[in-house]
Amino acid sequence: MQRAVRALLGSRWPLLGMAGALAAVVVAIIVVATGGSLAVAALTLLAGLTLVGLVVVGASAREAEQRTRKTEKQLKALTSAVETVATSVQAVAERQADPTGGPLAAIIGAQRLDAAVRHDELVALHEELRADLHATLTERQLAELSALANLYAMLGADDEVPAFGGFAASPRTVLRLASLVRRLPSDALIVECGSGSSTVWLALACRRAGKGRVVALEHHERYAALTREALARHGLADVAEVREAPLEPVTVGGEKHDWYAAPQWTDLRGIDLLFVDGPPGSAGPRSRYPAFPLLATALDDGAVVALDDAQRQDEADIAADWLAEPVDSVRLADVDTVGRTRFFTASR
Questions:
Q1: Could you tell me if 258 and 153 lie in one domain?
Q2: What pLDDT digit, counting tens, does each position of 128-171 carry?
């Protein structure tokens, strides 16, 4: 009934209610002043108080109704946003399920998409989360976003660069590697085990510094092609090359591994920066161990060696063995850890 009356009177009903209450008070005073019945005066005052109560209750109800409408509107917006995100996630999942890569391959460039690498990505993420148990996600995100902004500011990429994420080297790692390029000799040789977004950024760093060249060893034919396409988009074919190097059996330090085919790296000499980001763990336990024993003699004195995914147990064991086992008088010294990448220097 109150709502019907309020609809009839419109927004003027609170004012009319207060006016009625005031009139009731005036009437009660007049009744008492003229010697009228006290009972009538009391009833009149009671009617006035009732009107005041109705005005207060009505105002509170109206405010509550407005809050309810606002909340419903916000819930509808949130529901719509959730549905949009769910649709996007489903679309990404469908694209990832495409065995040919589909449009997703063109977007992420040289990222590793096969099932074995996805498994490695999940294992790496698990190990990273466990190692960074006391670090907040926000802090890591800010650090990576800051590094990515620095990369674009330093190197000025003018075309699409393969996306970071998953098992690719992180922006913090690539920023450190790109910064090191400026300190390398004029004829610097940079060798990368594995190819992808880091290959493009290292080539951009060489072009900006006006020195050095990059050689990436890649066992997966498709990823090699994707990285070459990314390099071509930036006009970097004269600065960087990707060599297809199928994995072949090799015995190093009494251990059997599948590592890059020898004809693709035996000619490399005078390496100033070695970035070990492959082969993936799916190639076998301690799959990256052969990098230092096999390339030690090709390292220049003072060369920098970087081992990615150092938070994983296999890579931690590899780093310990590298530090403890000089190869042909070449010894590694621990320098620093940036994100998930451990840096060493080589000396003779």
A1: yes
A2: 655 554 455 567 777 777 777 777 787 776 666 655 655 578 88
- 36: how many CB neighbours lie within 10 A of its CB? 14
Residue 207 DSSP SS3: helix
Rounded Cα gap, residues 117 and 106, in angstroms: 18
In a domain, 32, yes or no: yes
pLDDT, one tens digit per residue, over 206-255 is: 999 999 999 999 999 999 999 999 999 999 999 999 999 999 999 998 89
How many of the other CB atoms lie within 10 Å of CB of 162? 23
**Structural tokens at position 94:** 């469908």
137 and 70 co-located in one domain = no
Alpha-carbon distances, residue 94 vs 10, 86, 87, 191, 335 (angstroms): 55, 12, 11, 35, 43
Integer Cα distance of 286 and 171 in angstroms: 24
Tokens at residue 44, please? Answer: 């009149």
- Beta carbons within 10 angstroms of residue 51's beta carbon: 19
Verify that 289 and 180 share a domain, yes or no: yes
**H/E element, 67:** helix 38-96
Token representation of residue 331: 């010894």
Q: How many domains does the chain have?
A: 2
DSSP 3-state of 111: coil
Structural domain harbouring 322: 130-347
Compute the C-alpha angle 102/195/212, nearest 5°.
135
- Under 8 Å between Cβ of 276 and 239: no
With beta carbons less than 8 A apart as the criterion, state whether 261 and 248 touch: yes
Contact 151, 181 (CB under 8 A): no
- The verdict on residue 229 lying in a domain is yes
- Distance of alpha carbon 289 from alpha carbon 319, whole angstroms: 8
- Contact of 288 with 278, CB cutoff 8 Å: yes
